[in-house]
Amino acid sequence: MSLLLKSALVFNSPGGLLEKKDILIKGGKIFKIAPVLEKKEHENSQVIDAWGKIVAPGLIDLHVHLRQPGEEGKETIKSGCAAAAAGGFTSIACMPNTRPVTDSKMMVERVKEIARREGVVNVYPVGAITKGSLGEELAEMGLMVEGGIKAVSDDGRPVADASMMGLAMEYAKMFNLPLISHCEDPSLALGGVMNQGLTSTRLGLRGIPDTAEAVMVARDIILAQASGSHLHIAHVSCARSVELIEWAKSRGIKVTAEVTPHHLVLTEEEMEEFDADYKMNPPLRSKEDVEALRKALKEGVIDIIATDHAPHSREDKGVEFERAPFGVVGLETALPLILTELVHPGHIKLEEALASLTIKPAEILGLDAGVIREGAEADLTIVDLDKEDKVDREKFYSGGKNTPFQGWKVKGGAYMTIVKGKIVMREGKVYF
Ligand code: DOR
Ligand code: ZN
Fold first, then answer.
1. In this structure, is residue 160 part of a structural domain?
2. Residue with CA at minimum distance from ligand 1 atom 2
3. I want to staple 216 with a disulfide (CB 3.0 to 4.6 A). Which of 4, 35, 45, 183 is the partner?
């Protein structure tokens, strides 16, 4: 079955121009792109009228937590992929902090196999840096590469030991893998549950200082400089880290960085008191930090937006704030929030936002994706800039309902998600 996207405004990197085009999809690939396709060229095709909408390369989320294996009550590969499709993502990289940790070739292959059978989007498992993510012994990176990993990370747990991190970088470089670092010095973060500052004092909660992040960002940048490996810094949350990344880039050190929608949109002051749906790691920071993050994204100091989609059950989040797990879901709210809070008010351009969700994450992971060209896989996202909606967690496909954005009014989002030429989501409905 072939598919024709008619009169779409096509976003394509690196030029980032929006041009009106017809796109014909055949056999799962982009067959032809032209200003106007003749009727005889697309006979018997299903026609999608994309007039007034944007067609972008399929969105890529480099930072997702699926909970399978081990915590299927929170999320499964199937439900996480459905949430991705609902949010307009065609590819996701999933972090290894499953139970057991994804630290072997067998585990990587298992995740890939379940994703192939049950997932509606492309899944790229991230392999652990250390066995069990315990920080003590390197995981079998070479074997995991054979299993198909595109990156390594101990996300959720920082690699506390600097010599271990240095060694990991040497190996990551050997296998040409980006190393994704969850930067947080445990001795500085100790026991904290939110940002350290006036709000934590007011609420009487133990804080995590921004220095906990920045100290480790600095350490990892130095280690990346020494090893020459590609360091990718996960979920940057504060101005101090931004300064360090800017310095590293100015020195030609191979470092890339991501920021989450929640760190771009919320501050610690907007936390609903003791509501664990605002609890995540790293925590929401100050207004000045949010401003620095927005500026860094705009200027390319921060390369991409990634969600850190971290589903948790109502029961797990329902305990006292201090004991609740860290994490918020993000796949189904990312694009609407970015459009509503950043693009429409003019903080960043649409093209910049889309590049940070397509070509740039593809480059970091080394994927042949993120551009629309003839012959490429037909992974595409149709974006409606004008659709007004209200965030409703009860409608999420994700098993996790832990969002701080419940009830938010949003304008814009994904209209359709196409993976390998197949419509997997249309107007909010996912097709398995
Ligand atoms: O908030 C977070 N949740 N941060 C992490 O680093 C891990 C994640 C999770 O797995 O729940
Ligand atoms: Zn993390």
1. yes
2. 327
3. 183
Nearest CA to ligand 1 atom 6: 156
Do 318 and 187 share a domain, yes or no?
A: yes
Q: Which of 320, 339, 365 is the last residue of a domain?
A: 365
Q: In the prediction, which pLDDT does 272 show?
A: 87
What is the model's pLDDT at position 75?
Answer: 98
Looking from the CA of residue 326, the nearest atom of ligand 1 is 1
Query: Using 50, 70 and 90 to split pLDDT, how confident is the model at 158?
Result: very high
0.85 exceeded by the pTM?
yes
Catalytic entry in 155, 210, 308, 379: 308
What pLDDT score does 19 carry?
87
308 is a catalytic site residue: yes
The domain containing residue 392 runs over which residues?
A: 3-55+376-430
Per residue in 9-25, pLDDT (tens digit) is 999 866 667 889 999 99
Measured in Å, residue 390 CA sits from the centre of ligand 2 at 28
Helix/strand/coil (H/E/C) assignment for every residue in the chain = CCEEEEEEEEEECCCCEEEEEEEEEECCEEEEEECCCCHHHCCCCEEEECCCCEEEECEEEEEECCCCCCCCCCCCHHHHHHHHHHHCEEEEEECCCCCCCCCCHHHHHHHHHHHHHHCCCEEEECECCEHHHCCCCECCHHHHHHHCCCCEECCCCCCCCHHHHHHHHHHHHHCCCCEEECCCCHHHHCCCCEECCHHHHHHCCCEECHHHHHHHHHHHHHHHHHHCCCEEECCCCCHHHHHHHHHHHHCCCCEEEEECHHHHHCCHHHCCCCCHHHCCCCCCCCHHHHHHHHHHHHHCCCCEECCCECCCCHHHHCCCHHHCCCCECCCCCHHHHHHHHHHCCCCCCHHHHHHHHCHHHHHHHCCCCCCCCCCCECCEEEEEEEEEEECCHHHCCCCCCCCCCCCCEEEEEEEEEEECCEEEEECCEECC
Q: Is the pLDDT of residue 401 over 70?
A: yes
